[in-house]
Amino acid sequence: MRVEYINPFVETSYRVLKEVLGGSDVKRGDLYLKSTAMPVMGVAALVGLAGDVEGRVLFDMTYETAVNIASKMNDERLASFDDLAKATISELANLITAQAVTKLHELGFKFDLTPPALFAGENMEIAALGGGEESVEALIVPLETEYGKIEVNVAIRERQ
User: Fold this and answer.
1) Residue 39 CB: number of other CB atoms within 10 A?
2) Mapping DSSP to helix (H, G, I), strand (E, B) and coil, where does residue 66 land?
3) How far, in whole angstroms, is CA 58 from its chain's centroid?
4) Do the Cβ atoms of 111 and 53 come closer than 8 Å?
5) How many CB atoms neighbour CB 28 within 10 A?
């Protein structure tokens, strides 16, 4: 996985979170690779990528973090992970991914996004792309905020 694909997602996630959380402190944890199927923390917004590259970006968080972030973004305390919270987390994924892809287009990479798909539930796993020797490792970027932790999970490869 080329670092040119990853940096825009890392930088944009950091910047957009800081912005939508009202200047709240955002700390980036140590990046790590994961090659097997990954358990999801509870709420995952997934955006697919297609074109020069194929893959996906996943924004993974607990229900509590999702409700906290959605509450902050809407300037009201949400009691549960309701339709407004779901729409807000989907929009957050859309904002981050669209800005990252714009940066990548400026660098000469051409690809499109799928609209965010939101998954919520206990004991879910997101499997790696492909299988066997073609599987793609996912780069995990943990971001800590006062509202909870979000893991930005990027798995991208050049089209075969």
Assistant:
1) 11
2) helix
3) 4
4) yes
5) 14
125 strand-pairing partners:
39
Position 95, amino acid? L
Q: What is the DSSP letter of 36?
A: S
- For residue 139, the cross-strand partners are 33, 154
Using pLDDT thresholds of 50, 70 and 90, give the confidence band for residue 38: confident
H or E element that contains 93: helix 83-106
d(CA 105, CA 98): 10
Residues 63, 81 contacting (CB under 8 angstroms): yes
Give Cβ neighbours of residue 82 (< 8 Å, ≥ 6 apart).
Answer: none
Distance between CA atoms of residues 38 and 68, nearest Å: 23
Q: Which helix (H) or strand (E) element contains residue 159? A: none
Retrieve residue 146's tokens. 């006062």
Question: pLDDT tens, 71-82?
Answer: 999 999 999 999
- The residue written with tokens 């993974």 in the block is 60
Neighbours of 22 (CB within 10 A): 9
Rounded to whole angstroms, the Cα distance separating 144 from 147 reads 8
SS3 121: coil
How far apart are the C-alpha atoms of 71 and 135, rounded to whole Å?
Answer: 37
